Amino acid sequence: MSVAVQLEHASVRLGGRAVWSDVDLTIEEGEFVAILGPNGAGKSTLLKALLGVVPLSHGAASVFGRPVRRGSPDIGYLPQRRRFDPDLRIRAVDLVRLGLDGNRWGLSLPSPARRRRVGEMIELVGASRYQERPVGELSGGEQQRILIAQALVSGARMLALDEPLESLDLNNQQAISQLVRSFCRTQGVTVLLVAHDVNPILPFIDRVVYVAGGHVLAGRPRDVIRTETLTKLYEAPVEVLQTTDGRLVVVGQYEPVSHHANSH
Ligand SMILES: Nc1ncnc2c1ncn2[C@@H]1O[C@H](COP(=O)(O)OP(=O)(O)O)[C@@H](O)[C@H]1O
Ligand SMILES: [Mg+2]
Asked: Digits of tens for pLDDT over the chain (264 positions)?
């Protein structure tokens, strides 16, 4: 299996302050990775560092064996908190097609092959039913599926999804997580997904990456998601329980304890 992401002694400084420092991280190709941690800890910054949008102040970052570079077609990116104006008239299917067009508006009519690919991705995310509707009219969960289809359609080897489950109900969070896992399994796509709550996604992920207090801690869920580890990480009481059927459940005040005085 090849390496999708590698960080070596990586540090990022923003606004004259270290966000995180001396991070070593390896992610294998095809893994479904959850990026977790308090608000303001640097999760979005981690994705942006891999996209080459935020420079490292120290260390090295590579994606699929090559140094990170901005605009790489290897990574499909879904930024945090993307909302559509309710009045936005663009149809869902056209929004997905933009993923294929590299975000340029008004390209000429797509070839049958391109149209087929857009249709396949829409079907894959279960959005066929509402593909002709204006995105502004769709529910949060429906919009999210369309955005994931848009990220997928480009054929990127890796998806960087920043809080795609935010504001979705539990069923949708799980449905989308399941969908993402099946991409990883069937298409070998590597997925980095930033999430707020670990519980809905825990059954689906291969690896967790916690970003907190200027550090990054990564590993298999079973090794990292432990009462002592998370309590220390969040600097607040967190308890990890195991259900009778062996599932882990994280409970407690692991709501945003920001190390920086900011609320998002
Ligand atoms: N462009 C910027 N300039 C200065 N500070 C920034 C900038 N972008 C983010 N930050 C700060 O970096 C820290 C990490 O932010 P972010 O990666 O968005 O956190 P998270 O996604 O974990 O909530 C925060 O303290 C934030 O205020
Ligand atoms: Mg963020």
From this structure: 699 999 999 999 999 999 999 999 999 999 999 999 988 999 999 999 999 999 999 999 999 999 999 988 899 999 987 778 888 889 999 999 988 875 444 455 457 888 888 998 899 888 999 999 999 999 888 998 899 889 888 888 999 999 988 878 888 888 889 988 988 998 899 999 999 888 889 999 999 999 999 999 999 999 998 999 888 888 888 888 888 888 888 887 665 444 444 444
Q: Which residues pair with 58 in a beta bridge?
A: 11
Distance CA 168, CA 138 (A): 13
In a domain, 141, yes or no: yes
Q: 176 CA distance to ligand 2 centroid (A)?
A: 19
Ligand 1 contact via 263 beta carbon (within 6 Å):
no
- Give the structural domain span for 95: 75-155
- Distance CA(73)–CA(51), nearest Å, equals 10
Structural domains counted in the chain: 1
Ligand 1 centroid to 38 CA: how many Å? 12
| Cα three-residue angle 182-187-188, rounded to 5 degrees | 95
User: Whose CA is closest to atom 14 on ligand 1?
Assistant: 42
User: Looking at the domain assignment, is residue 133 inside a domain?
Assistant: yes
Asked if residue 104 belongs to a domain, the reply is yes
Q: For residue 153, what are its two tokens?
A: 């359609």
In a domain? residue 89: yes
**Residue entry with tokens 């959005």:** 127
Two tokens, residue 139: 């529910």
